[in-house]
Design a protein that fits this description.
87 residues, alpha+beta, 4-stranded mixed β-sheet, elongated
Amino acid sequence: MQANIHPEYDYVIFHDTSANHSFLIRSTYKSDQTMEWHDGKHYPVCYLDTSSESHPFYTGKQSLVKSEGRIAKFNNRFGFTKTNKEK
């Protein structure tokens, strides 16, 4: 590994502002702002709009836009049903 070509890889707090949830992981993200973590140390902070705590897919609040598939919509539009196919 060559020296002085890799970015610093250190602990960073990622804070989800919509859910008021934070998690501490290692990252190469740089920030001038810091936040105090549960251990009493100050770490750089990255503010997020969405994380797994607030995203509808992970919280189970996602609504399905498509209730039927494209083939079912085609069959409904043109009147194809099982009874018509059997005739």
